[in-house]
């Protein structure tokens, strides 16, 4: 039997008398389906196995909709003429019948087949053997078909051949579903990243814009405190000063968080700091002013005398202490003192803040240094949950570490960094 390719898109005139140039172009979504099949690395191997196993000379994966038949991938050993992206008139294909019925069509020999001996499609395209199985996505959606033809008869209507085609069709469907899920995940991740970036930029702008009016409030309160005031007025001014101080700390944490997230981490300018002890004492004094009812003890002790100056960013280390001390005062037992111990050890610099109070459970310790973590937050508790995160970032900027130990009602945060400069 001579191989005859009937009137289709690859002839000059199709069955309806329209030229190829008059045909509607493949829609963008269907082009994406062709590209999706092309991204499945095993597709060509599947088509090759089909041709080798069945003896059929042409195999393809077709995208079949209610209006179009499009070749997504082909293996053509008989010069059929289709390439990926090529179309056949839907109504002339048996794949259309597979889509409508959902059943497999397998023909060993058209001329002896009772159902298809007089069918238009085999006559039009000149094939004698044919098989097509549906490709259904995991959610049941019909995608298309895995099909093969040849101008010569072949044994394809067997459980083994149909089972092989069905297995390959399921494999293709799983790959397509995996691509869809991956694309959806990547899209969701991109949206989340964009949202997070906008949120962090908003925080940075808000924190920056709040600093000026807050500075004006704090300056006004400081000026009022210079004059003799009656007891009630003095208390109000003191409350304003403490609140402004706390708000300043919150804003600085927000700005540092935004800088760290948007700028690749906090910056630290390390240099020998012989006045570090006095700077830390000043931080303790400032916190003591804001918490007049609490007892804060500060101790500086070096293992070696005299100790070399600590190489650090003194402002950042002071900020780290301020955050740790504020955390201890917030969560610690109000009736117990908070201890700040610092100094140079044989293996470097060490700063410890210790308070008594509820033991922090290990499950809470695991995420204590993450941004916005509130630990065992209580109703009415203030703060954004950024203090420990900022402290961790400062420790990292010094190539140091920040750890926590909490046992028997005592919690100690320890900052360590490498040896001091000699």
| Residue fraction in strands | 15-25%
The CATH superfamily of one domain is identified as: Histidine kinase-like ATPase, C-terminal domain
Outline type: elongated
How many β-strand stretches?
13
What's the helix count? Answer: 10
Quickly give the structural class.
alpha+beta
List keywords for this structure.
422 residues, alpha+beta, Beta-Lactamase, Heat Shock Protein 90, six-stranded antiparallel sheet, five-stranded mixed sheet, 13 strands, disordered N terminus
What is the topology?
Blueprint: H1 28-38, H2 43-54, E1 58-64, E2 69-76, E3 87-88, H3 94-101, E4 105-107, H4 120-125, E5 129-136, E6 142-150, H5 159-226, H6 231-263, E7 271-273, H7 276-290, E8 296-300, E9 310-312, H8 314-331, E10 338-345, E11 348-356, H9 362-365, H10 387-397, E12 401-407, E13 410-417
Helix pairs in contact: 2-5, 5-6, 6-10, 7-8, 8-10
Provide an overview of this structure.
The structure is a single chain. The protein has 422 residues and is α+β, with helices and mostly antiparallel strands. Among the domains are: 20-157, GAF domain (Beta-Lactamase, 2-Layer Sandwich); 266-422, Heat Shock Protein 90, CATH 3.30.565.10. Helices cover 44% and strands 19% of the residues. It has ten helices and 13 strands. The strands form three sheets. The chain has a six-stranded antiparallel sheet with strand order 3-2-1-6-5-4, with helices on both faces. The chain has a five-stranded mixed sheet with strand order 8-10-11-13-12. The N and C termini lie far apart (96 Å). The model is unreliable at 1-25 and 376-383 (pLDDT under 50).
């Amino acid at each position: 039997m001579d191989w005859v390719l009937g009137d289709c898109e690859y002839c000059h005139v199709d069955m309806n008398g329209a030229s190829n140039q008059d045909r509607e172009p493949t829609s963008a979504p269907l082009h994406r389906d062709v590209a999706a099949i092309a991204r499945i690395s095993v597709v060509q191997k599947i088509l090759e196995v089909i041709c080798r196993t069945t003896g059929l000379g042409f195999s393809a994966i077709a995208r079949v909709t209610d209006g179009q038949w499009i070749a997504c991938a082909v293996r053509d050993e008989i010069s059929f003429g289709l390439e990926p992206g090529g179309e056949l008139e839907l109504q002339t294909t048996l794949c259309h019948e597979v889509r409508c019925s959902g059943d497999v069509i397998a023909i060993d020999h058209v001329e002896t087949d009772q159902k298809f001996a007089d069918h238009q499609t085999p006559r039009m395209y000149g094939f004698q053997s044919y098989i097509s199985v549906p490709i259904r996505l995991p959610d049941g959606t019909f995608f298309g078909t895995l099909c093969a033809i040849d101008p010569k008869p072949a044994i394809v209507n067997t459980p083994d051949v149909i089972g092989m085609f069905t297995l390959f069709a399921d494999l293709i469907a799983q790959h397509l579903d995996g691509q869809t899920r991956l694309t959806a995940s990547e899209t969701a991740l991109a949206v989340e990243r964009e949202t997070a970036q906008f949120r962090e930029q908003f925080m940075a702008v808000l924190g920056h814009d709040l600093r000026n009016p807050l500075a004006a409030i704090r300056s006004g309160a400081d000026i009022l405190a210079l004059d003799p005031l009656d007891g009630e007025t003095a208390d109000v001014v003191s409350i304003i000063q403490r609140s402004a101080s706390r708000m300043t700390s919150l804003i600085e944490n927000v700005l540092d968080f935004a800088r760290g997230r948007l700028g690749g981490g906090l910056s630290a300018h390390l240099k020998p700091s012989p006045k570090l002890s006095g700077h830390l004492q000043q931080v303790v004094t400032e916190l003591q002013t804001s918490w007049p009812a609490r007892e804060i003890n500060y101790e500086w002790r070096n293992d070696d005398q005299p100790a070399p100056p600590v190489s650090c960013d003194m402002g950042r280390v002071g900020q780290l202490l301020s955050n740790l001390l504020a955390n201890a005062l917030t969560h610690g037992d109000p009736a117990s003192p908070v201890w700040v111990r610092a100094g140079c050890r044989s293996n470097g610099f060490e700063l410890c803040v210790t308070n008594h109070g509820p033991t922090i459970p290990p499950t809470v310790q695991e995420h204590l240094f993450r941004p916005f973590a509130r630990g065992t937050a209580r109703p009415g508790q203030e703060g954004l949950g950024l203090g420990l995160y900022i402290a961790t970032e400062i420790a990292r900027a010094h190539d140091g570490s920040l750890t926590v130990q909490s046992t028997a009602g005592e919690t100690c945060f320890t900052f360590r960094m490498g040896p001091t400069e000699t």
